[in-house]
Design goal:
- By secondary structure, the chain is mainly beta.
- α3 packs antiparallel against α4.
- The chain has 5 domains: 65 residues, no CATH class; 92 residues, Carboxypeptidase-like, regulatory domain (Immunoglobulin-like); 102 residues, Immunoglobulin-like (Sandwich), CATH 2.60.40; 43 residues, no CATH class; 150 residues, Jelly Rolls (Sandwich).
- β17 and β18 form a beta hairpin.
């Protein structure tokens, strides 16, 4: 706001000059003023001293200076028309800034009048909108709110406000028509700390009790505003930038809704209103910026692909959560429609797999090996299973064994048979080798089905329990060889699945 120039009464100027002079000098000055008065006559613009001299010249009282000096000290005038800057209206000098925001739920578009003016101060203001600061006289005013285009007699709200000179104010319309109200907020605050944004937070959601506002950008979360009553406001500040905030609407000290405030910039004041949709529990925010514009901020929504504060996940965004965070050893989390995580694909074991296809040389007793190196500290082996994915014709040609760090060796299978103990002439295998399985891998072949001829979970020929108690960390080596010619194939992938003790 512009600051008004304060004009000192003219009589005070004379008094200041007189105080620096002797009594004789004062008398001489007054004689001079008397002479001047005789020449120009009485006028309405003369000071009190001039008027007194013109009245008392013939009595000789002018020389004493007593009457004139006393009247000079008072600085009073007979007419009140002198340019002293004083008035008898009681109005505060200067100007103030006033803007309006419409958060009245069922009022429709409105007009806002000031002091019974013929034209509205603000015309046809829709819900969820506002205007920039309008310069008005400081002092007492009456605000009347009517339906847009309606007469003063149709007023929905009439209220008095008081505006201080050189200050800015926001006037927020809120509540249902049955209790239509206005909230006057002073926006003239000292600026926030450098790099911060100042927020004036107002609760104008009639269907919500007290609210708490939390800052979610830091752990533990911090309450910026606690127990804010309906129709009340509180000023806080926070670091500038996009801010995640939460609102508790049921007084359990836990945010029920989360919002992401855009970056409004530093060193500014933002009026932030908590509003609800008419006859709904939908709570949203309205931010009125310094230029009067209004931004609606809705709560974060599950399904937008961004995992917000109250969401464990959203689409592919798991906020870096893993199965380990859910108490599982490994696996992959999935996200459900409510933005919660599912652990069905998580496991109680650590799984480490080969990364390249292993070609199996035909009719080679030495065969071929492939290592899986586990660098992670996963503890001591409590249980281990082996996964094999093999593409090969006439599976009975193949033999597999597993070694840990060149020491303990376990035979997985030495040739495959069918359930009639005949050689397995079937193709391909996808199998999990587990000591606890009911069926042995040796007789797992089924040539009556489409490949893979071996498919499922089976017990190995040797005992994988021989690895129990060893460190999971280290080098695990798969050895495979083909003992007959003609049929060839590959190990597409193999894995060790280690459950720690």
């Amino acid at each position: 706001m512009r600051k008004s120039l304060i004009v000192l009464p003219l009589s005070l100027v004379f008094l200041a000059s007189a105080s620096a002079c002797s009594d004789d000098a004062i008398g001489e000055d007054l004689d001079t003023l008397t002479d001047t008065d005789d020449e120009v006559g009485d006028t309405e613009t003369d000071t009190a001293e001039t008027e007194t001299s013109s009245t008392d010249t013939d009595t000789g009282e002018t020389d004493t200076g007593e009457t004139d000096t006393g009247e000079t000290d008072t600085g009073e005038t007979d007419t009140g028309e002198t340019d002293t800057g004083e008035t008898d209206t009681g109005q505060v000098e200067g100007e103030a800034g006033l803007r309006v925001l419409h958060a009245g739920l069922d009022a429709g578009d409105v007009d806002v009048y000031l002091d019974g003016a013929d034209d509205p101060l603000v015309a046809t203001l829709p819900f969820e909108s506002g205007v920039a600061y309008i310069t008005v006289e400081a002092g007492s005013h009456t605000i009347v709110v009517t339906p847009a285009g309606g007469a003063i007699e149709d007023a929905m709200l009439t209220t008095d406000i008081e505006l201080q000179m050189d200050s800015d104010y926001s006037f927020a319309l809120y509540d249902y028509l049955a209790n239509f109200s206005g909230l006057l907020l002073e926006d003239s605050y000292d600026g926030p700390a450098e790099g911060n944004t100042l927020f004036q937070i107002s609760h104008v959601a009639p269907d919500v009790d007290q609210v708490d506002l939390y800052m979610l950008s830091e752990e533990p979360i911090q309450a910026l505003v606690s127990d804010l009553d309906f129709g009340a406001a509180q000023v806080v500040e926070a670091a500038a930038g996009a801010l995640p905030v939460g609102i508790d609407v049921d007084d359990d000290q836990v945010p029920d809704l989360t919002y992401t405030l855009p970056d409004f910039g530093a060193d500014v004041l933002v009026d932030l209103y908590v509003v609800n949709q008419a006859d709904e529990a939908v709570v949203f925010l309205l931010a009125q910026l310094s230029d009067g514009s209004v931004v609606r901020i809705d709560s974060d929504v599950c399904g937008d692909g961004v995992a917000q504060y109250l969401e464990l996940c959203d689409g592919e965004d798991f906020k870096e959560l893993t199965c380990a965070d859910m108490g599982k050893a490994s696996g992959v989390l999935t996200c459900n429609a409510a933005c919660g995580v599912e652990i069905d694909a998580c496991t109680d074991y650590y799984e480490f797999c080969s990364e390249e296809v292993l070609d199996i040389p035909d009719n080679d007793q030495d065969g071929v090996t492939q290592d899986i190196v586990i660098a992670d500290e996963i503890g001591t082996v409590g249980d281990i299973d082996v996964y094999l994915d093999v593409s090969h014709t006439w599976l009975n040609d193949l033999n597999f064994d597993l070694t840990k760090d060149g020491g303990t060796n376990v035979l997985i299978v030495d040739g495959f048979l069918d359930q009639d103990n005949s050689s397995c002439g079937g193709d391909d295998m996808i199998a999990v080798l587990d000591d606890e399985a009911a069926t042995s891998i040796v007789n797992a072949c089924d040539t009556d089905i489409d490949p893979p001829a071996i498919n499922g979970t089976f017990a190995p020929e040797g005992a994988l329990a021989d690895f129990d108690g060893e460190a999971g960390t280290g080098t695990w080596t798969l050895h495979v060889y083909d003992q007959f010619n003609q049929d060839t194939g590959d190990v597409n992938q193999w894995c060790v699945r280690i459950t720690p003790e």
